[in-house]
Every structure is written in C-alpha cells, then in structure tokens.
Amino acid sequence: MSAATDRRAQAGVPGRVVVAGATGYLGKFVTREFKRRGHWVRALTRSVERLEQAGPFTAPGIARGEVDEVFVGQATRPETLRGLCAGGIDIVFSSIGISRQRDGLTFDQVDYQANRNLLDLCTRSGVRKFVYVSMLGADQIAKLAITRAHERVVSDLQTSGLEFSVVRPSGFFSDMGAVLAMAKRGRVLLVGDGTNRFNPIHGRDLAEVCVDAAEGEAREVEAGGPEVFTQREVAELAFAVLGKPAKLTVVPLWLARGLARGIGRINRQFGDLAEFIVTAGEVDAVGPARGTMTLRSYFEELT
C-alpha cells in the first residue's frame, strides 16, 4: 500500500477507485454511486461505446464526463491491463462475470480468471482494498461451475493480504426484467413449481450497498431487496403490471435438468448458465432487506 493511499484511508476521505465491469448492469450504477460520494473513478471497459450507452433493464449510460478516466482493456487478457492501477489506486471494485455474453468463454475463464488477473494486478500495484460481488447462498449451490468460480475468487482474496469485502446479493432486478420480457411475449416459464423464495434488489440500491462495503470494514455483506417473492409471484406480478391474464408454464425439474445437460453438450457456456437457472429454481435466497425500490415500480418503469 502506498503512503498516500494509507493516509487517505486513515483520514476517511474519498479515494481513487477502479470499477471493473463498468459496462454491466450493476457496474454502471456502482460507477455513479462512487462519483456521487466524491471518489475519483477510473472505469474499466472493453467498449467506450457500450459504457456510454444506456444498458438494458434501466442501467444508465456513463458519459466520459461522468468519470475521471476511462480505461479500455479486457480483464481476461492481463496484457491489456497494464497501467490500470497506476496513480495510487485505493480500491478496486469488480462485478465482472458472465451474464449474457455470447463469446463462448466459460465461468472459469471469466468469473474466476478475469478477477484473478485483477487481484494479481492489485497486489503488485499497492492497492489497499478489493471489493468483489459474489452470490448469496453459495453453500447451497456449491457444485455449480459459476459458484466454484466465484468462491475461488473469494478464497484467493482471503489469502491475498489485501483488505477485501465480498458482497452477496440475493438476485438482481435485471433478471426480473427478463421475466417481464417473457410476460410481454405472452407466457412465462417456471422451473419447478416456482415456490422458492428470494428478494431481488435494484441495481441502484445494490450499488449503495457495494460502496458502503468499499468504505466500511465488513468482509462479508449480504443484501436483498425490500420484498420477498416466490418465482411464481414475480411472474404473476409481471402479468398484473401489463394488465394481462397470467399464463405460466411449469417445466418439471427432471425435464429442466435434462434440457440443461443437452444444452451443455452443444455449448458449454449456455449449458452452465442453464444448470444455474435450474438449480436456482430449487433453493431459497433471502438476504437482509436493503434499499427502497419495489419490484412493481421497477416493472412499471420498464413498461
């Protein structure tokens, strides 16, 4: 850790931050929240155009004037990250992970190795703290490729010598936006009976949790939204907001598992994602209530 970084931390003044994953749903909100609180922000992106464009599911566009620096690089390619942490960076925040990419990379290559590349860079550059977004209830779905990748990062953080904080959300509103999109098309598919409970959280509310974690001392932070739903209730709410009768199709778990395995034989990335969706339909994930945005108001905003 540099002397300047240490002095800023001791004084409790805003620091110098790198946001990795700044073009993603959560990353855009986190970038804005760091700036709102007075931090100096360098946004890591693969595409300046994607950073500046508004993302799906209400994620804001981030204009160049809204951050202090834009750094173009790919976390999966460490040679493109030279200089990312130059200039006395205090905190690196990362929400990098596979979401809707179609580049054929695996969870091990993105969710683990890309974050490992960032962590290695931090330890060489004197960064004080690493804030990482994993998932709530990882112990319930530990066998999945996505969970193994996330928890390998957590394990590496624990032995890195850096200060760190792991944020564990129960689910994203952006995923609920996908349910609304299905409802607009006329039918929502439920994996299993749809009775598992969770409390997804809006990106803006979760961004506040993430920056609180960056500024605080807690090593593990769990967070969910203000309301608890079953998957079936989310689907029914989507149809209610649209003013349509609910049309739900239940896909039995045995069939969903078979479909996921079949997809995996054709495309490993999509197969791993399908396996995650199926398994998530079997477990509860209710985190401490944070934030104020309700799912109904979010659906209304999307429509």
Structure overview:
- By secondary structure, the protein is α/β, with parallel strands linked by helices.
- It is 44% helix and 16% strand.
- The protein has helices spanning 3-11, 25-36, 48-52, 107-125, 145-158, 173-185, 203-215, 231-242, 253-266, 268-280, 295-302; strands spanning 16-20, 40-45, 69-72, 91-94, 129-133, 163-169, 188-191, 197-198, 220-223, 229-230, 248-251.
- The strands form three sheets. A seven-stranded parallel sheet has the order 3-2-1-4-5-6-9, with helices on both faces.
- Helix 5 links the parallel strand 5 (129-133) and strand 6.
- Helix 9 packs antiparallel against helix 10 (268-280).
- The protein is globular and about 55 Å long.
- 46% of the residues are buried.
- The mean pLDDT is 91.
